[in-house]
Design brief:
The protein is of the alpha/beta class and 229 residues long. The chain is 38% helix and 21% strand. α1 packs across α8.
Length: 229
């Protein structure tokens, strides 16, 4: 079964690209054929986390164009800003589903026609939120706007740490009637590895939340993901 998972956030760099890359690597290591698509209007964030230079990036104007093979079971492509106005996101994702068991789409925090297209075709829309006052206010506004929608949606709280607003996570989830699908704690090791362009999905603090997230959004994720501790 193929699943399309779109990842979005309100302004403030909540960590959409981080989650997209970590989840894609986790699924790929679980023997799930995964395509990672950077559809952020600002672009370049996912390629940087994969340690790919500008010359390496595959401009995915059409699903027929080959994506970059990043690792076993993991491919990458990005949508160039120049192609966004004529890009048929619905057709592209339909073609991608035929080739991959999972398609992870980083939508970023800018909402345009392209992001709305891709989100509407997704099985899951994951909203990434930093649970401090600013992050929660921005997420509340983005969710209330209704600009993005998908078959199912949920909340991911990222960079959870002391000083975050107690009880605010549950309040946001209740207000918008969305399940909380993951919590990722602030971790200096993760930040250091991201800065150096190194994979983070194996960092101990991320192992359980990534495994539980994969189980929630992709029931056919594979034995390696489901059994991973």
């Amino acid at each position: 079964m193929s699943r399309v998972i779109a990842i979005a956030g309100a302004k403030g760099s909540p960590g959409c690209s981080f989650l997209a890359v970590a989840l894609a690597r986790r699924l790929a290591e679980g023997q799930v054929s995964t395509l990672l698509l950077d559809a952020d209007a600002e672009g370049g964030g996912v390629a940087a986390l994969l340690d790919l230079g500008p010359a390496d990036a595959s401009n995915a104007n059409s699903a027929d164009e080959p994506a970059i093979e990043v690792d076993q079971n993991l491919s990458f492509a990005e949508i160039g800003n120049a192609s966004a106005e004529v890009f048929n996101g619905l057709q592209w994702l339909s073609d991608a589903r035929a080739r991959h068991q999972a398609v992870i789409v980083d939508l970023g925090h800018s909402t345009g026609s392209l992001q709305r297209q891709l989100s509407a075709a997704a099985d899951w829309l994951l909203w990434v939120v930093v649970p401090d006052r600013s992050g929660l206010q921005r997420a509340d506004a983005a969710l209330a706007s209704g600009a993005l929608g998908a078959a199912s949606a949920g909340l991911i709280f990222n960079r959870v740490r002391r000083g975050c607003l107690e009880g605010a996570e549950a309040a946001l989830a209740s207000r918008h009637q969305l399940p909380i699908l993951g919590r990722f704690a602030e971790d200096r090791q993760v930040a250091a590895r991201l800065t150096r362009g190194l994979p983070v999905h194996r960092v101990w603090s991320l192992r359980r939340p990534l495994r539980e997230l994969a189980k929630s959004i992709h029931p056919d994720a594979g034995a390696a993901v489901l059994a991973w501790r």
